[in-house]
Each structure stands twice: as C-alpha cells, then as structure tokens.
Design goal:
Blueprint: E1 2-10, H1 14-27, E2 33-40, H2 46-53, E3 58-62, H3 67-76, E4 81-87, E5 91-93, H4 97-107, E6 111-119, E7 142-143, E8 151-155, H5 156-162, H6 174-184, E9 188-199, H7 210-253, H8 260-279
Parallel strand pairs: 1-2, 1-4, 2-3, 6-9
Antiparallel strand pairs: 4-8, 5-9, 6-8, 7-9
Length: about 280
C-alpha cells in the first residue's frame, strides 16, 4: 500500500497547479505517494499540461464544475494510500513537508488528522486551528479544533469511519465540518508548525463565479449551523441573515449610479440569499 494519496481539485488554474505538482515531486523523497487531480472542466489547458508534464498523475476529467467537495470525494473514492491528503492547487510544498507529516503521523497513533503551518507568500503564517489560535507562536505539534483543508492529511481508518466530505456543501465549511466529525469520532487533530507549506490563499475561490460562490457560502453556512448546532441556532441565524439583507439592499441602491454592473450582481446575490433565509427549511 502506498504511504500517501494527495488529492487536488483544479478549475482553470493551470499555471499555479503546475507549480504545485512540481513542488511535490521535487520535495518528496522518503515516502511512496500518488497524486490524484480532479479537474472541474477547465478550459485553460490544465488537463493537457498534466498529461504532458506529469504523466504519473491520476487525472479525473469532469465535464462540469462539480464544486470542491464533490470533486474531492471523487479522489477519496479511489485513493490507495495509508493516508489521504487534501491539498489545494494554490499551494507550494516545501522541502520534506509531506515526508515529515507522514513520519509524524506514523509515530502518533492517537492523531486522526494533521495539517502543516500554512504560510503566505511573504513567509508570514496564516490563521488556522480555531478562533483563538495563536499559530504564529506555536513551535511544536499542538492539538487544535480544526486545520484548513488547503493541506489536510487524514488517516485511512478515520476516513473509513467518519465517511467522505459532506456534499451538501459546495465550497466553504467543508474542512470545518470534516474536522468536527473526526473529533466526534474520538480522534485528535494536530497542527504541525514545524512543517510548512506555502498557500497563496483565496486563489482557488477566485476561479469560481463570484455570485455563486457568495450564495453557496451562505447556503452552506446555514446547513452547517443546522447540522451541528440545532434548530434554535439555525432559526436565529436565518432571522439575522434576512434582517441583514433587508438592511443592505437599500444601502446597495446608493451604489447603482457609480457601479451598475457590480450593483446588479450583488443585488441578485442578496435576493438569492434572502430567499434562502426566508424559505429554506
């Protein structure tokens, strides 16, 4: 059995995906691994680049944009490793990062999942691990509530037990949902600040139609709230959301003379969200 299966979702991100794949092969030497890329109907030559430059990559070619979660699950359904890892296409793996993550997990059987320190391109750390996390001050492996799905490594037995990612979500809240389920199943999640991966951050989400991304993010947040916090919290969230939209729409009207196209996109998104808040059960 392979040590690690790396699952990457790509949508029209050829240039930076090429950098990501190159960094994996360049900087991973001590473990056996496979890379599975699920491509969401890219039209920028991503699929051709993978086939020509990285022929060992297992490529799943979708005919439509299946979203991040469905596309990730496509990879998780066929992975062969002792560990499965979600890795964003807008990441750069630093020297020995994946080798060391697998080595640490092998030595710490109580850990169900782990993630590295994520760095901005200027070398500063990104916030992760929980609302009050002080990631920039950590210098040793630390148990956390969650790690960001940009680089999330999970033990195979954990995936077998908790199941795949929740496809009721489209893009956001997926990593948090999975980590909650992992912790509820009795496993610990660790942040490994001594291991670093560069994450451009937000680059992948910019490739998704903005109105849909915004609306699906809100829809997913409502679903997540109901799933994990119950009907009362869900009802309160819906009320606050609807009230906020009703306040924002008149304010949005003020921008119409200056940015008519932006006004139209935002108004349609706000109306979609208002409908979801008022009528979704």
């Amino acid at each position: 059995m392979l040590d690690l299966s790396i699952i990457i979702v790509n949508t029209n991100n050829r240039k930076i995906l090429e950098e990501c794949l190159g960094s994996i092969y360049k900087n991973t030497h001590k473990i056996s691994f496979e890379i599975i890329v699920t491509d969401n109907a890219s039209t920028d030559g991503s699929q051709q680049m993978i086939k020509s430059r990285f022929p060992k990559v297992k490529l799943i070619e979708n005919q439509e944009n299946a979203g991040f979660i469905r596309a990730s699950n496509q990879g998780l359904r066929i992975y062969q490793g002792r560990y499965g890892m979600l890795l964003n296409d807008d990441t750069v793996v630093k020297a020995d990062a994946l080798d060391r993550m697998v080595e640490w997990m092998d030595k710490n059987s109580r850990a169900g999942a782990c993630g590295p320190r994520l760095l901005n391109t200027d070398g500063t750390p990104q916030r992760q691990g929980g609302l009050f996390s002080r990631i920039h001050k950590l210098d040793k492996p630390t148990e956390v509530d969650f790690v960001i799905g940009a680089a999330l490594l999970v033990r195979r037995e954990v995936i077998d037990k908790v199941g795949l990612m929740d496809e009721n979500l489209f893009f956001y809240n997926d990593d948090l949902d999975w980590c909650i389920r992992i912790r509820k199943a009795g496993y610990k999640i660790y942040l490994l600040p001594q291991i670093e991966i560069v994450h451009y951050g937000g680059y992948s989400s910019k490739r998704v139609f903005k109105r849909r991304l915004f609306v699906e993010g809100v829809r997913g947040g409502l679903y997540f709230c109901k799933k994990h916090y119950g009907m009362l919290a869900y009802a309160i969230y819906r009320f606050i959301l609807a009230l906020g939209i009703l306040v924002f729409i008149p304010l949005l009207m003020l921008s119409f003379p200056f940015k008519p196209q932006k006004f139209s996109d935002r108004l349609l998104a706000y109306l979609d969200i208002l409908r979801i808040a008022l009528f979704t059960r």
